[in-house]
Structure prediction request, 1093 residues.
Amino acid sequence: MNPVILYTILSLTAIGIVAAVVIYFVSKKFAVQEDDRIGKVEEVLPSTNCGGCGQPGCHAFAKAVVEAGDLSSLHCPVGGNAVMKQVAEILGIKAVERDPYIAVVRCSGSFEHRKKTNVYDGTESCKIAAALYSGDTGCAYGCLGMADCVEVCDFEAMYMDEKTGLPVVIEDKCTACNACVKECPKGILELWPKGKKNQRVYIACLNEEKGSTARKECSVACSGCSKCFEACRYDAITMENSLAHIDPEKCKLCMECVDTCDVHNIITANVTPEKIQAANEQRLKREERARKKKEEEKLAAEAAKQNTHETPPQA
Amino acid sequence: MKLHHKLKTFKLGGVHPDDQKISAGVAITPLPLPKVVTIPVAQHIGAPAKIIVQRGDMVKTGQIIATHEGFVSSNIHASASGRIGVIEEVMDSSGFKHTAISIRVKGDDWQENIDLTETLVEEIKLEPKEIVARIMEAGVVGMGGAAFPSHVKLSVPEGKHVDHLLINGVECEPYLTADHRLMLERPKEIIVGIKILMKALGVDKAIIGIEDNKQDAIELFQELLKTETGIAVEALEVHYPQGGEKQLIQALLNREVPSGGLPADVGAIVHNVGTTYAIYQAVQKNKPLIERVVTVTGKSVKQPSNFLVRIGTPVIDLLIAAGGVPEDTGKIVSGGPMMGKAIADLDVPVAKGTSGILLIPKDEASRAEVYNCLHCGKCIEACPMGLEPYHLLLMSKKGNSQRAKEEHILDCIECGSCSFVCPSNRPILDYIRLGKTQIRKQKKV
Amino acid sequence: MSAGLLTVSPSPHIHTELTVPQIMRGVIFAMIPALLFSIYNFGIGALYVTGLSVLFCVAIEYAIARYLLNRAASIYDGSAIITGMLLAFNVPSNLPWHIILIGSAVAIGIGKMSFGGLGNNPFNPALVGRVFLLLSFPVQMTSWPVQGATFSLDAVTSATPLGILKEGIRSGTPVDTLLSEMPSYTDFFFGLQAGSLGEMSAFALLLGLIYMLYRKIITWHIPVSMLVTIVVMTGIFWLIDPTRYASPLFHLLTGGVMLGAVFMATDYVTSPFTHRGMLIFGFGIGVLTVLIRLFGSYPEGVSFAILIMNAFVPMINKFAKEPRYGVVKEKRK
Prediction:
């Protein structure tokens, strides 16, 4: 054989063998010991690395779960209860069920309702605009409409409605990963329990200005009129800084408050108009009963008063 | 004759925007009192002042209406006499709503202990500590734009030795001429103000830095300071941002304030000429900071002017006095074109830090088309802090605060040179600001 | 009060006039002396090649942006025109149209658009195209028409001074003898030599350089450091053995050195950000050019040198930082 070819083959083979040996020892020496359950848990996770669980990624979540050995404080919002059940099975621990959540948009100030007061010409980013000033409409609390939330969504679960200029959450795709909530500089997005039969009710306004000012800025702003607050039978609605807020934990989804809002800014999801109407009628009836009762009481009180007047006071 | 030696300037970066000092020849005229003054309680850096008046109270001009909360804060005085009106949140030049006290003006009835005469009082009777206390009492803040309380600057931290007082008469922002006019019309008062500051700080050397495009002011001060020792005038190259505190220290003393440090770390304290004048008024005349010179200017403005304005006057009054708002106005900026803030509401009140109102025509009001980054390096060339703006933009955009911090994003003085010079019109400073706020937020958490 | 709403945006509210289209126009303007000289020298063929190259580059960029990337056509910034002109400047003036088409396609398609268009390409697109052609069509790319051959595209060809030098030295002829058969340095300076379309006249190229420096489109750092390096390095070799190595002036005035230093190496996108980086970059190009010219198998090395240094730009950017205000030099870790 040609000696050149021979030497080439020999030297390459030698280099190969030496390299293989080196790699073998290096891999042994620097092998990372890891609980193999972490890998198993990671496999069932959705591997979106969205950070919705509070951990930097799915691997970190798997590691945290294995280390904690307990699921009470760890939950994968994207995988939901189904995935968490699998995780629990792998680790042989008890699964903890959690209510699914969804992001809701708490602003109804569409183009039509909220007039522009100036033209924003900076970088198309809500965060940058929010740091510069209170916004291009009168309302300092409302959506800036530059889609930071849509951009940050890993699940294509949001889009901007071109007619209103507001973001829309697609119910089936939203995994409640919290990314948009963290991104929004105005705090308009909020995680909300998906609710029984996916029914939800919330007030889509964050304007804390006095009622008259707020309405000047946006025709559907919450003016703090308290009608919904008074209508709620479960103390689920609170009033603060002339702004009503529904506490989803206390809300029984009775829908009786929905029609009290004179600007129709109590937003419902997956609730039929019939149900709202029925709830409203029920409320009106109840209010009527209450009013009658009050009147009767008043009459009774007046009668009692008269009675007391008849007996002269003792000095 | 002009001297042909090279003018001093700062060492790194900088840009040369067209200086457009169209109102430089217009003397300062006092603006008549408005019907209502609206005085924000947070006009300065630091804690907002605490309101001590109530709706319906009668106040005199110069009376304290809100007191400082803590050390880094400032007193607020009534800028006109009258009855206190509503106290509510109003839009101010920051672009956000803040609490403000409105006064329905009735006459101009000053507090008795304020000396309203024009006579120059040269003798400085107060001791250093008393001077600082008086400045604090009078609510004097930096009038170059940042509005940092002056008494804080004068209270040099222990263990630091200050050897130079620098007076900032640079006014490097294009268009603005408020400081220039003040230097021409009140030079003697400014010199007394400098002496007050020197006494308060215990330094024997002061330098007034003035950009070369204000030759008349330079000559005037050279003439007046012939017999003085310890105060010098230095002509500086027209070079933006020459008036940045750190840049001025580098230009005049060739010292660099360490990253994250204070001017006092390198033995210098910088005060603006407007502030120096206000300090003269406060110490020698017992007059609190209730008025300031504001330039109203712009290419289409009928009468570009320099007005002496009471704090709390709505911007619209200034615009009307300058010949009204031109038809082609597209943008109104409070401050200069490089660092000023665009305002959308003309009822915004003039604050202690408002140095000018600039009207920009429609065709110059919007940003031009953005192209890809060409990697031309012009932003790096322009950065007076030696940062890499394009790089900081990318890191801020990606939310990589850690790296941005390592690249000294917090050293950015937000002078806008990078955005100004970028041939691709990239919004570099927008993102750098965003990155800075992200880091500050993380710090709070 | 004026009608309409006021605009609000973050500061600064003014902007320099020197924007991308202005810069591109400035560069095109700076290339015109060299182009005019080339037309004077090679006749209409030079204009034909340049025109075709520009046309192809613009058309290809438009087509790729519009139909392949589905985005707005990016041709209005003028960068495709520059790429086209630079490509033409780097080829002989009698190149057939199909080779120009291939060169343009490689320059724009592979060199520029495949990385995302203007601003994202790591290598100078015109040089990518040129080197591709040089390797694929070595004969056509190295047959230079003699100057004065006006319209005939198949004119008599001659070798470049550098080619003659390389061949001559290989065959053992002393440099002096070779040089005596060539035009004088003054002729070289004004461009009376064989070579690619735009590279011959150092004079015309220097006019372009002065214009670009005056308009503040580029800084002096890259051209000066590159040229100084070449002069110093060739000077050293020349002093060692003048019979085997040509003088620095010869190297400066022949081949693509001037074109490279003025237009190719100074391309924003593919050169470092900082002045320090630019000096290193220019130095690197100079060293590589001289090494290829003196010891490589090609007579000319500017294109390769620039492309190789393009690859180092990210690294240079990482290490060659500007001094920072108020930051004491960090201690080495």
In short: Residues 149-155 of chain C have pLDDT under 50 and may be disordered. The first helix of chain C runs from residue 20 to 42. The interface with chain A takes residues 5-10 of chain C (CB under 8 Å).
